[in-house]
Specification:
Acetoacetate decarboxylase-like; about 50% strand; 4 helices; single chain
């Protein structure tokens, strides 16, 4: 089966006040780096919860990766932007489907989320969806390159989530690929809540355009566990408004 897409929906309308509700989060993506690999479905399936199945691409693989995101002006709606906070976060992601196979709902399963924000650790999975572990993070992004480092915050040496990555923007191109469709064109994220059950979050960037950048350095314990992993597009989004909201989790057959 050949891929015939190409980011058919390059933009999402910025929501008006009537579309936002109490409990929704709003903010700006300063930069969002998405590292991706193609992985054999047989390696992915054992990591998924019941009711969730791998989303298999045209090449027979599943997109697995990490989202590294720096956010500004994050606050609950309708709080004004000047009250918002800056946050960095990282999430491992596996492309999944739920619902009937004849009419699947695409999404990502997020087994782990980390952040450098104590507030996000405190409210995540309570007031807002998304349980986060605390990590130390550094990031940079300019016209030439982007780089991230994520390490355990407690000095434990547990590198299960440790990430070090760098990419060049010098020869970047507009992202138009199956990987971009799957990664950027998917809004539903499922992750374990504080009781181990699944909770859902809908993340809606106001613009889905991204650039494909050249990976120059990568160390990720999570990705290295997959023996079948092969490198896929590395994507970068910058300067994009975004909203999050809690959504019900329905995992019908």
């Amino acid at each position: 089966m050949a891929y015939s897409g190409g980011m058919q929906t390059p933009a999402v309308s910025e929501p008006g006040a009537a579309q936002l509700g109490l409990g929704d989060l709003v903010g700006v993506i300063r930069h969002r780096l998405l590292i991706n690999c193609w992985v054999d479905p047989d390696e992915v399936a054992p990591l998924l919860p019941d009711g969730v199945r791998p989303r298999i691409g045209s090449n027979g693989g599943v997109v697995v990766g990490c989202c590294l995101i720096a956010l500004d002006d994050i606050r609950p709606w309708p709080v004004p932007a000047f009250v918002g906070r800056s946050v960095r976060a990282a999430a491992h992601r596996i492309a999944i489907e739920t619902g009937p196979e004849s009419e699947p709902t695409g999404g990502v399963y997020v087994p782990m989320r980390h952040t450098d924000s104590r507030l996000t650790v405190m409210v995540g999975g309570r007031i807002f969806p998304g349980v986060h572990q605390r990590s130390t993070m550094s990031s940079s992004c300019d016209a030439q390159s982007v780089a991230w480092e994520v390490r355990p915050a407690d000095g434990s040496g547990d590198d299960a989530f440790a990430i070090q990555v760098a990419a060049s923007r010098l020869d970047s191109t507009n992202a138009r690929s199956e990987v971009a469709d799957i990664v950027i064109g998917t809004f539903l994220g499922l992750s374990p809540n504080r009781r181990g059950c699944l909770e859902g979050a809908d993340m809606q960037p106001f613009d889905l355009r991204a650039e494909t950048v050249s990976l120059t350095e990568l160390s990720s314990a999570f990705l290295e566990q997959f023996s079948s992993a092969t490198e896929a597009d590395t994507l970068l989004m910058t300067g994009v408004g975004v909203t999050w909201r809690r959504v019900p989790v329905g995992l019908g057959e």
